[in-house]
Amino acid sequence: MAGGVGSRFWPMSRQSMPKQFLDILGTGKSFIRHTYERFAKIIPDKNFLVVTNIKYKKLVLEHIPEIKPEQVLAEPVGRNTAPCIAYAAWKLKKTNPNASMVVTPADHLILNEDEFRNVIKECIEFAGKEDIMMTIGIKPNRPDTGYGYIQIDNKTPQPNEHIYKVKTFTEKPNSEMAQIFVDSGEFFWNSGIFIWKVSTIMKAMEQFLPEMHHQFRSIEQFYNTDEEQSHIEQIYPECRNISIDFGIMEKATNVYVRCSDFGWSDIGTWNSLYQYSQKDDSGNVINKNCITYNTERCIIKNENDSLTVIEGLKDYIVINSGGVLMICPKDKEQDVKKFVDDVKFKTGDKYI
Amino acid sequence: MAGGVGSRFWPMSRQSMPKQFLDILGTGKSFIRHTYERFAKIIPDKNFLVVTNIKYKKLVLEHIPEIKPEQVLAEPVGRNTAPCIAYAAWKLKKTNPNASMVVTPADHLILNEDEFRNVIKECIEFAGKEDIMMTIGIKPNRPDTGYGYIQIDNKTPQPNEHIYKVKTFTEKPNSEMAQIFVDSGEFFWNSGIFIWKVSTIMKAMEQFLPEMHHQFRSIEQFYNTDEEQSHIEQIYPECRNISIDFGIMEKATNVYVRCSDFGWSDIGTWNSLYQYSQKDDSGNVINKNCITYNTERCIIKNENDSLTVIEGLKDYIVINSGGVLMICPKDKEQDVKKFVDDVKFKTGDKYI
Predict the structure, then answer these.
(1) The pLDDT value given to residue B303
(2) Alpha-carbon distance A289 to B135, whole Å?
(3) Which of B139, B228, B253, B324 has its Cβ near the most Cβ atoms within 10 Å?
């Protein structure tokens, strides 16, 4: 899933170049490239499907030249994760109705990739044998209020020591509730990574999102043909804009979670970017051509060819990218959405 | 005099585009253009001479298309104001040995231009009749430590109520001394504007800077000929690097000051720029395409085509110009020189 516009990292991420195509941690590779390489060790190139907005299709193929254009599914409009997953599932069903399917965001950070692959392989094996939907839950190391949580059902017998039946999916909690969640030991972060058989998710779609299921079934004969795109462009805008979590996972009763601890972050905020980035001696995350004086705990990003000189800033985000300079205290990062709205209102799409 | 490199306003002013060619107050015209227009009302175009570095000759002619290339005197290297004034004086002497001469920096701000011109005319008249050197002193309205001061001699009879004989020239005082200067009523800011007959400054040069006088006299036959430039390029690098104030004014005894109050600033610091610029309701000096939140008393400059969004900054200078972003507290503006040195050391001349 690589269709997001990543406005939280504006002005570093832009509609023309959202987060999944950026290397905001300075690793040398984009998020989508890391995601591909992470899976390529256990999944053959021909089995990848990337769902993205039609305007990013070319970018996807530039970042993953190993896959063919027909493996990049082009959404005419964004409709959240449920239609995205339905679309991929229908194409897979036509290719191989017995297929298993791993669903993953393209813009997350995984630190221990070997452990991650072991978890994925285990989930594929387990979900391949049963008519169940697997999610990956991350052992929380802090009461993060930016994530949804998955509560395990520890009364139902476990298939193995790491897999539990899911009791509930919860929305992002407030900080008091998040602390209770973490202290209880029953709650795990919802990573947004899912594993299931195509036949299982199809059944769940039919049950919980029957209208959407009907829409995708109505063009069944065109998947994997030259006419697929034009039919997708007809039905997609009509699809309900809904997440897979809200549309299916929260309602289904055959959901299991593989509790894991491989070092994960959705890098969804400047503060998580800060947390996972390399820092200089003053705790600044900077790239080359940044000269700082009396400056601490800042995130400073400029373009390759430009120079930044900063004196006397503490705990700020300073982004100078693509003709836009943004300066904002780290503890006001939630205001970036407001900035984007205001900029749109005042200057149109030029700087978005 | 338009040869300065204006590094105090880096990164807005650059070696390739120093302060005199910029419109840092947002008036719609560069300093040098304002200076030309200010004098053009009382001095014919053909009487202007602009002394600048050879690399700025083209820029001068772009900003003042009314003058001819031969009116722009090209210094091969900067040698402070004494050689600059000597060069112009020698050329003038050859054209008209009876000429009077007004010397002015090209990058100062004058608010009341009518009053200014009246002062200049009065000085030209007075200096034209006597063998004396006139300076313009500005009535101080605050104990500024960034200016040199001129002390009047109020025992010698005055030629008129505004003109005094000069007792001393002083260097920039500390703030305690500056307060004493202002309270005394005897001290005026040294504007760096001078009026004298060519014959008078020649005599002073011969007396106080005899070696330099000899250097410029040695090529007397070549002024205003095709060979002038090549001879200037030979003698100029050998000239002593010295200001007219230190070389002559402080030593001469025939110096008078016209005390004035026409609204003057050398706009030599970011804080003086701030003082003389238009501000928004939060006291910010900003240009277009700047959006601020909770931001007060800042100087924010970006390029025409770029956007700046700032939250939560108070009393900072934020300049984003020509591939360089500088952020610095207003009360640390003196550190800009250090920044320039460090940038030069680390990256060479690219960003200077």
Answers:
(1) 87
(2) 46
(3) B324
Written as six digits, the tokens of A330 are 């780290």
| pLDDT tens figures, A240-272 | 999 999 999 999 999 999 999 999 999 988 988
B320 has a chain A CB within 8 A of its CB: yes
**Treating both helix axes as pointing N-terminal to C-terminal, what angle do B113-129 and B31-40 enclose, rounded to 10 degrees?**
60
Contacts of A327 in chain B (CB under 8 A): 308-311, 313, 318, 327
Nearest to B305 among A305, A318, A323 (CB): A323
pLDDT per residue over B107-140, tens digit each?
999 999 999 999 999 999 999 999 999 999 999 9
Q: Is the pLDDT of residue B1 over 90?
A: yes
Tell which residue, B209, B230, B295, B271, has the closest CA to residue B9: B271
Is the Cβ pair A325, B339 closer than 8 Å? no
Q: Mutate which of B309, B349, B351 to disrupt the A interface (most A C-beta within 10 Å)?
A: B309
Buried b (16+ CB within 10 A) or exposed e, A184-212: eebbbbbbbbbbbbbbbbbbbbeebbeeb
Which positions ≥6 away from B286 have C-beta within 8 Å? B280, B292, B298, B300, B301, B308
Return the C-alpha torsion angle A88, A94, A98, A104, nearest 10: -10
Query: How sure is the predictor about A329, in pLDDT bands with cuts at 50, 70 and 90?
Result: very high
Tokens linked to B181 = 């200067």
Cβ–Cβ pairs < 8 A, chains A and B: 103
pLDDT in tens, A5-18: 868 899 999 999 99
The complex's ipTM works out to 0.85
